[in-house]
Amino acid sequence: MESQPTKPKLLDQLRDRIRLKHYSRRTEDVYLDWAKRYILYHKKRHPQEMGKKEVEEFLTYLATERNVAASTQNQAKAALQFLYKEVLNIRLPWLGEVQQAKKPKRLPVVLTEKEVQTLLAHVPLGYGLLSRLMYGTGMRLLEGLRLRVQDLDFGRAELLIREGKGAKDRVTMLPKSLIEPLQEHLKQVKQLHEQDLLKGLGEVWMSESVARKYPNAGRDWIWQYVFPSGRLSVDPRSGVTRRHHLDEKALQRTIKQAAIDAGLTKNVTPHTLRHSFATHLLQAGYDIRTVQELLGHKDVQTTMIYTHVLNKGGLGVTSPLDRLV
């Protein structure tokens, strides 16, 4: 008698479904991690045996006992909803009994133009061009790292940001002062790519949809990363050896160290360059709708936070102490 094929384990089913939906590797790792935590929290009970009540209990636990951030709780909620809907084919009713984690109202850290100049002067050569480009365009960290050669339009001084937050493309300006440095940089990147091709390598990662449409595009020059890694790595999904883009954590450490070396007393991250970009544009007199479009914000209310940063010293009020001087 022929044995029945073994049904894949739950986490393998979850992984397969995530890949079928063409979600990113980052999302895959995060969703799998939350599924594991959820199962362990309920003493390894199978999610099929649980539902709305157990999900609400877990999410409330995260907020009340683990004191996670609101964004972290929402991430866990999205992961579990995906698990139930896409893998177990169970639609959870609206999770109305969840204790919501508090979302703090924080103003973004913004540098003055002088502080930005000082910071960039202390960024090492390998990350200097990328850091200047991020400040000059307002890109998010991963948007900058994922730039492809064809995304730079030197003739129009434009830059295409593909699949930014919300999976939307947008166009922003390319700082004219960076055109020549970028062109020189790409000459070096092209040499590196040609060396990889000679070794039988040179294939860059492509999304599944693009790879199906253009099956041989992975080795084309126009699809290469503008800021490639200095070393090759093996793709954990496919086992293919490729040259990925620069490591995001390395850039984060570099910016943090540059701020320390520059003597800045603010908590500076790569995202601080984006905040400073938006604030400096508003200070220069550009209207908020233009800044919203350049940043890729869906709602202008998100962009409005930078107007609060402009109000120096408590809504722009002069301290009475200064009137005595």
Key traits:
two-stranded antiparallel sheet, DNA polymerase, domain 1, 325 residues, 3-stranded antiparallel sheet, mainly alpha, hpI Integrase, Chain A, 2 domains, 4% strand
What is the CA–CA distance across the termini?
Answer: 97 Å
Number of strands: 5
If classified by CATH, what would the architecture of the largest domain be?
Answer: Orthogonal Bundle
Helix and strand run = HHHHHHHEEEHHEEHHHHHHH
Largest sheet: 3 strands, antiparallel
Strand order of the largest sheet: 1-2-3
Helix fraction bin? 40-55%
User: How many whole angstroms does the radius of gyration measure?
Assistant: 24 Å
The structure class reads mainly alpha
The number of helical elements comes to: 16
CATH class of the largest domain: Mainly Alpha
- Uncertain ranges: none
Q: Looking at the structure, what is the overall shape? A: globular
What would the average pLDDT be, to the nearest integer?
88
In the CATH hierarchy, the third-tier topology of the largest domain is known as: hpI Integrase, Chain A
At the fourth CATH level, what is the homologous superfamily of the largest domain?
Intergrase catalytic core
Q: Name the beta content range.
A: under 5%
Query: How many structural domains are formed by the residues?
Result: 2
